[in-house]
Specification:
Layout lengths: L1 H8 L5 H16 L5 H18 L15 E9 L9 H7 L1 H7 L4 H14 L3 H5 L7 H5 L1 H11 L6 E9 L3 E4 H12 L7 H10 L6 H27 L4 E2 L4 E4 L13 H18 L10 E8 L4 E7 L12 H12 L3 E2 L7 E5 L3 H12 L1
Helix pairs in contact: 1-2, 2-3, 2-10, 5-13, 6-9, 10-11, 10-12, 12-13, 14-15
């Protein structure tokens, strides 16, 4: 809230700061750092700042200039990067639609075809880039998707959000910028933490849109990888019940496993996997269990990354107690761990300590 207040106080060139505050808030929501209710409340607060700083009269002095910046509030779709992708790819790789349509299964793919048919959208249109779609379709697209989504049980496909216009043609949703910056920050092609941080920071500047676009392409690759991994884990029964929690371990050699050595990407995978697993299992008990997941982190050091997330419930209060539990399990077994992340529910663990650490965790939480 501090940055919101600073944006309010500053009367000149404060739109940049306000936009960064919006991106920060959206990041917290996308990555489950705040509840949906907290997000909605803060959106209301930010909206007042947006209205004050972006009010324009329709006269010649206030027409859009080529280098201006304008932020607007809107209700948009929970479809990742859809304005910079094809609609088909976005639906297939957005957590919300992927989970609700069960797109890891043949039945889910059939439902996807029915969903597109219900909207009356030709496959040729939904498979091409969003910008290339017929203008007549794009004008009513959100309403068409929302109407059909309601029939398919996706009543929350619309969400409050903000978008930014840079000049005449560049428009980005806040979620676009979040996905872009996160992908640049965890870019495994450049395994240099400092360089990745600078590039992610550069992508937030309106003078560096090429970097933002680069991040969007990386984000698409990551989302494809995440949902392929989700499908693989579910279809090969990699998720097992370990008593008080569900457990999944990605072994070395798993496709795209390297990207899960990074905390943001790993947490996105966990979140999406649990959401989909809950919809795929018939075991009622498993539907209310939290998930612990591990994946190779550093082969030279012989470590794995371990993350724990709370159950997938309708409750708005999802407290994560794994940070303390990990600490106690490591202490009781003398497991070698490194708590080196802002999120204490993510740790680095020596590979050979994994079994005894897991046994201690089961005992502790039973």
């Amino acid at each position: 809230m501090v940055i919101f207040e600073l944006a309010w106080i500053m009367s000149k060139d404060s739109n940049d700061m306000l936009w960064w505050a919006i991106v920060g808030l959206t990041d917290q929501w996308i990555h489950d750092k705040i509840t949906h209710m907290k997000y909605v409340t803060d959106v209301g607060t930010v909206q007042r700042h947006v209205s004050r700083h972006n009010h324009r009269n329709e006269d010649e002095e206030n027409t859009l200039s080529i280098d201006c910046m304008r932020i607007s509030f809107d209700y948009d779709l929970r479809l990742a990067l859809y304005q910079h992708w094809s609609l088909y790819e976005s639906i297939c790789h957005s957590s919300y639609t992927y989970a609700n349509l069960k797109l890891w299964s043949m039945q889910g793919l059939k439902r996807l075809q029915e969903f597109l048919a219900d909207m009356g959208l030709p496959l040729k249109q939904v498979r091409q880039k969003f910008n290339s779609m017929d203008i007549s379709l794009k004008e009513n697209l959100r309403e068409m998707i929302e109407e059909s989504a309601n029939k398919f049980g996706m009543k929350d496909i619309r969400v409050q959000t903000f978008s930014v216009h840079f000049g005449f043609k560049n428009k980005f949703l806040a979620s676009d910028v979040v996905y872009s910056a996160a992908s640049l920050l965890e870019n495994i092609e450049k395994d240099d933490v400092n360089e990745n941080f600078i590039e992610a920071l550069d992508s937030l500047s309106r003078t560096n849109l090429d970097k933002l676009q680069q991040g969007l392409e990386l984000a698409k690759q990551q989302l494809r990888a995440i949902h392929q991994t989700v499908a693989s884990c579910i279809c090969t029964n990699l998720i097992i019940s370990q008593g008080p929690f569900l457990y999944c371990y990605l072994q070395e050699g798993t496709p795209d496993v390297k990207i899960y050595s990074k905390p943001i990407c790993m947490k996105l995978l966990c979140k999406h996997l649990l959401k989909c697993f809950v919809r795929s299992t018939k075991n009622k008990r498993c539907k209310v269990l939290p998930l612990v997941m591990a994946a190779p982190m550093d082969l030279e050091k012989g470590t794995v990354i371990v993350i724990g997330i709370p159950p997938e419930t309708e409750s708005s209060d999802k407290k994560n107690f794994f940070g303390k539990a990990f600490e106690k399990a490591a202490e009781s077994t003398s497991s070698r761990t490194l708590h080196d992340h802002f999120d204490i529910s993510i740790i680095e663990l020596k590979t050979e300590d994994r079994s005894k650490f897991l046994d201690a965790l089961i005992s502790l939480l039973s």
